[in-house]
Amino acid sequence: MVKVCDVVCPDKKQAFLNVSLSRNTIADRVCDLATDLQGQLIEKGKDFIAYFLAVDESADTTDTAQLAVFIRGVDSSLCVTEELLGIKSMHGTTTGKDIFEEVSKCVNDMKLPWDKLTGLTTDGAPAMCGEKSGLVGRMREKMQRENCTCELTVYHCIIHQESLCGKTLRMEHVMSTVTQTVNFIRARALNHCQFQSFLEEIQSELGDVPYHTEVRWLSREKVLNRFFELREEICQFMESKGKDSTVIRDEKWLHELAFLCDITKHLTALNLQLQGRNRVITDMYDAVKAFQAKLRLWEIQMQQGNLCHFPCCQTITSQASNAAFPNAHFADKLSTLRAEFTRRFADFEAQKFNLELFSNPFAVDAEKAPANIQMELIELQCNSILKAKYDTVGPAQFIPETMPQLRLQAARMLCMFGSTYLCEQL
Q: pTM score, two decimals?
């Protein structure tokens, strides 16, 4: 490093020489940084008027359960702070009681007031969402003991819900064939090398098929699309290796593959919309509602034989074949998927009024609002200056300090976690 400094910035050489690279010194500095960050979060936490937690538990490479807890807090200025609250290694059991004790310790260590906690988003595991012995039930009991007036809002991660909805299509027979074929090609280096050489020999525009990983939701779309594009080449290669390709050449199976490719692409697009940091829950809810509306449209169009939003299905139907494309069958699949979305996102539907109150307070009926915000809401709706400001800056920045109840309501919406995405990025 010092030699590089002689060339790049010789005037800073002494500063580099003063840096201690002792492992003990570095370890102490890491601890100092962690302590400083914790102190900063404690200071910020004193100003929170509402905060929300996201909790996710998963096992690491040593099969040790790691509990990740994130916090999103909002202060009186409606400024949002999103930080890691803690990571706890759980070497024993991971029951609801164990998880609650670790989460409770994180909250207490940061000196966060329990009466400011507005909700919790989990990965949906039984130990998390159990109403009696699970984390959710124990959190509610704790808030009752602390005499908290705010009701705990609980969400199952939107991204998990969306992924589970896709499983209702019951097309495992298609995915299993794709996975087995891809694994045969990719699992052994010789087969993989020969397949790549085969594609080069026939001058294929596409170079390879990627692996499919079940826990990585977005890999499914890539695998399916590449498999569909290379379906003929894959058949030829499998036959050259003495493998039966009857299923892959079956027209009915190809129809199923084409539909699965298209619907998976749509689900992946929604999945990507729901990911990311600092996502406001109303935006995530809007994305889900838009997808449900799309499903209704696709169902009608599928019944009519209109495949304009299903390009792989169009490709299959454009090729000469003996089997008719099963429009009614796939319309039923879309109907089932739409029903599952409605069922799984019922808890968000229950919060519909609060979500609309935050996203567009000028359109809600003041009579349906809680009594503590009705007067402020009427004043807000009748203020033309605030209406013009709302159109410019959006819901989080225009509510004046003279309306504390509406600001508190906005803070509770801003701090909500719609998913455990941040936990899973660790």
A: 0.80
